[in-house]
Amino acid sequence: MTFPLSQPSHGHSMTRKLWQFPWGYPEAALFVAGIAMVGFLLQLTVGHFNFILLYFPSNLIALAVLIGLITLGTCFQNNPFMRWVAGIPLAVTLTVALLILGLYMELTPQLPRLPSQTLDLTSRLGFRMVTSSWPFVLLYTMTLIALGLTTFKRLLRFSRRDITFLCNHLGLWIFLVSAGFGAADMVRVVMHVELKRTQWRVFNKDNKALELPIAFTLNKFTIEEYPPNLTIIDRKDDPDPLSESKPLPQNKQKFFQIDPKRPKGRIGDWAITLDEYLHTAVFVQGEYRFNPMPQSFPAAKITARNLLTGKTQTGWVSTGGNVRGFSSALSLGDHHLLVMTQPEPKRYASDITVIPKDGKPFDVILEVNKPVSVGNWMVYQYGYETELGKLSSTSELELVYDPWLLPAKIGMGLMAVGALLLAWNGTGASRRRKDK
């Protein structure tokens, strides 16, 4: 098999055979495909890669072996094969392969662990747990070797012109190493902290209590809610307005979003008018009144007019805060009721005091997507008692322990510096061209 190298002016085509140095993209594609095939064979024979093998100190030993291989490769950097491993064709091909696996992982549901029953071929090949499949692990390892060779070669002949290159490549290599070799040492636990209580223990999968080097006191838990929806349900077979029913029409459920700025809408054959809305109400002496107390709930006075018959109904609709005596629905006749759905949380946050074992306590507001870092721990707002809603007195915190967090931050920092240097160098080059 041959590939054209160039087209001379006198019409004769120069070709080279496959696997004849210098290797290029065809060899890179076949090489990466071979690694993937070996990975699939391992996947079918021995199952998923067991990250228990990389628990400390095994991961440090494996990292030392990896660095040794890269160092040995740099000693033979003039070898054609080593030049190809550290070259652009293999780097691009490995990147494309990992991107394909990553894209598949994002587009298909992934499982934390495989079920015990018989698996389909897709699951057996590792596509339901991509990051622990042998093809991914082997391609990831080859990427570390290729990227390491490229980076270490520049380190051996370091010059100031290589600073930007080294920041980007060395930073990426450190980040990838931290993410992969530190995966087994990572610990995820969920802590339930009660209001005005200090908690330092969690329970593992075996329901055994574990004491952590960090404690939390929940000072306050707050929830902000969106305005609820209105919908129509049929109570012909179940007269209890608090039990679950499917909104009508069942083939296409319709809702009316409560919004004081848009008080009119429609649900099916009924025209809905919002006469009054209390986002925080209490039921006192037979009527709903505004009150921002924690036990409050939304209530709305509604006028519903049937567009076919002209029949009009007016009354209060409320969830009652899950309390049966305080909920209400508007009867529309023929077993149909206009009811209010439970409001969805807009924002929930925990005002907590963090008490490190070897540090000073400090207060922080913990929100979803706004974690706090405490040493090698990352603390996330995980959940609350959803059945109680605003009355929840317990906050659920997810704690992630990652001893490789510092190297990962160093790697990201180097990449950030490299990006800034690239932008600076690009701006400087542009200015020099204009001056000329």
Can you characterise this structure?
- By secondary structure, the chain is an alpha+beta fold.
- 33% of the residues lie in helices and 31% in strands.
- Strands 8, 9, 10, 11 and 12 form a 5-stranded antiparallel beta sheet that branches. Strands 3-19-18-17 form a 4-stranded antiparallel beta sheet, with no helix packed on it. A 4-stranded antiparallel beta sheet has the order 4-5-15-16, with no helix packed on it.
- A hairpin with a 2-residue loop joins strand 9 and strand 10.
- Helix 2 packs across helix 6 and helix 7 packs antiparallel against helix 8.
- The chain is elongated and about 90 Å long.
- It starts with a strand and ends with a helix.
Helix and strand topology:
Elements: E1 2-6, E2 14-17, H1 25-46, H2 58-75, H3 80-85, H4 88-107, H5 121-124, H6 134-156, H7 163-181, E3 187-194, E4 198-203, E5 209-225, E6 229-234, E7 256-257, E8 264-267, E9 270-284, E10 287-290, E11 297-306, E12 312-318, E13 330-333, E14 336-340, E15 345-356, E16 362-367, E17 372-374, E18 377-384, E19 394-401, H8 405-435
Antiparallel strand pairs: 1-2, 3-19, 4-5, 5-15, 6-7, 6-14, 8-9, 9-10, 9-11, 11-12, 13-14, 15-16, 17-18, 18-19
Helix pairs in contact: 1-4, 1-6, 2-6, 4-6, 6-7, 7-8
Notable features of this structure?
single chain; 436 residues; alpha+beta; 5-stranded antiparallel sheet; 8 helices; 31% strand
Task: Summarize the model shown.
33% of the residues lie in helices and 31% in strands.
Envelope shape: elongated
N-to-C terminal Cα separation, in Å? 49 Å
Average pLDDT metric: 84
The radius of gyration computed from the alpha-carbon positions, rounded to a whole number of angstroms, is 31 Å
Q: Spell the H/E element sequence.
A: EEHHHHHHHEEEEEEEEEEEEEEEEEH
Major β-sheet profile = 5 strands, antiparallel
Into which percent range does the helicity of residues fall?
25-40%
Helix run count: 8
The number of distinct β-strands equals 19
Unreliable stretches (pLDDT < 50, length at least 5) are 1-13
Label the structural class.
Answer: alpha+beta
Oligomer: single chain
Proportion of strand residues: 25-35%
